[in-house]
Amino acid sequence: MKKFLIVFTFFLIQGITAQELFVVTDPASNIPAGSLGIRLGQSIFKEQMKSGYSYHLMPEVTWGINKNLMVRTSVFVSNRDNQLVTEGASFYTKYRFLSTDDLHSHFRMAAFGRYSFNNADIHQEQIEIMGHNTGFETGIVATQLIKKLAISASVSFEKAFDNKPDYKYPAAQSDNATNYTLSLGRLMYPKKYTNFKQTNINTMVEFVGQTLNENGKSYLDIVPSIQFIINSQARIDVAYRQELYSSMLRSAPNGFYLNLEYNFFNVSK
Description:
The protein is mainly beta. The protein has one helix spanning 2-13, and strands spanning 36-46, 53-64, 69-78, 85-101, 105-118, 135-146, 149-160, 176-189, 200-212, 218-230, 234-246, 255-264.
């Protein structure tokens, strides 16, 4: 599998066309002003410390307040105790503070913040407020588009709290971390646009890492994916996440994503 991921990454970087619609990371660009995005995110990951799989369902609603500001709400559902249980929710906002445009390129920078609450048990050293921990995250993301090759990178600070009402955050574990990501993508089809109703097929690869600030433990994952954009409104993402390196305890690092999304444009003026 790791040899395949290396070949996939090399192939991707050779491309010259891309889109800024990544699967597990968010670019500096925003959803259009006055638009509403509905996403059904799903993941199924292989458990490391017991038999079986961890399934997470994450419905999301995103609203473009204006061209520079967007907000998002997510709900966390998992198969805890072999039944679907709602464990928490997340509130996210992103503000684009820099935008430069050239003839065949543009550059964006944005600041973002997220707060999540969760009532699940705390079972790993990795901090992940998207589905596992109560806490907040704040950071900066930059995205460059050059001849339609999209490159995006981010760095953020993440802090975990107790998962109320029943689970205290373990005193022996680091409760804060630095996160970092690097994402690359390209458009595979069509080779030439004739209208906006053409189906787009995008390939991309994302690197996602974290370092626990109190003890230096870290991990790095790779996430190759394929994406379909239908009629410029509907989106289907299929991705696989593979751990490349880890020195921390993680309950289920490897698995698949399937995201379904639909955008309603110009809902309000």
